Amino acid sequence: MNLATVEIKAFVPALDFERSKRFYAALGFEIPWSSDDLAYVRHGDCSFLLQAFNHPEFVQNFQMHLLVECVDDWHAKVVASGVIEEFGVRVDAPADQPWGMRDFPLFDPSGVLWRIAQNTPGPDGE
């Protein structure tokens, strides 16, 4: 019996599917495949499925976590991409969190909350 897993993907909801695809592309994500209501979205080895799913109460409670090597570089990339102005999204400054990460929140055009984070050393330096 082989129970090896290969991958896990979230279905990220989008109230305006085309606008959301443009948003993620502006952040440097690739969209190698898309249909009328589903898109495969990736950045490096990380990916998710963007879906046309117009249920605001679900979208407003949906969160994604993206673990990166340098959160400050990612924050600079988000700001420089122009998505804040073009899509009217909110992004806050990176901050050290008590759970051992430095992160910042980014809301996509639908209101999906992304927490982009990096691990930080614990109190003993690890």
What would the keywords be for this entry?
globular, 35% strand, 126 residues, single chain, four-stranded mixed beta sheet, 2,3-Dihydroxybiphenyl 1,2-Dioxygenase, domain 1, alpha/beta
Sum this structure up briefly.
This protein has 126 residues and is of the alpha/beta class. Helices cover 24% and strands 35% of the residues. Strands 1-4-3-2 form a four-stranded mixed β-sheet, covered by helices on one side. A four-stranded mixed β-sheet has the order 5-8-7-6, covered by helices on one side.
Structure, explained:
- The chain is 24% helix and 35% strand.
- With 126 residues, the protein is of the alpha/beta class.
- It has a single domain (11-119), classed as 2,3-Dihydroxybiphenyl 1,2-Dioxygenase, domain 1 (Roll), CATH 3.10.180.10.
- A 4-stranded mixed sheet has the order 1-4-3-2, with helices on one face. A 4-stranded mixed sheet has the order 5-8-7-6, covered by helices on one side.
- The longest helix is centred in the middle third of the chain and has 11 residues, at 71-81.
- The protein is globular and about 45 Å long.
- The protein starts with 10 loop residues before the first strand and ends in a 7-residue tail after the last strand.
Topology:
Blueprint: E1 11-14, H1 17-26, E2 30-34, E3 38-43, E4 46-52, H2 56-59, E5 63-67, H3 71-81, H4 83-87, E6 95-97, E7 101-107, E8 113-119
Parallel strand pairs: 1-4, 5-8
Antiparallel strand pairs: 2-3, 3-4, 6-7, 7-8
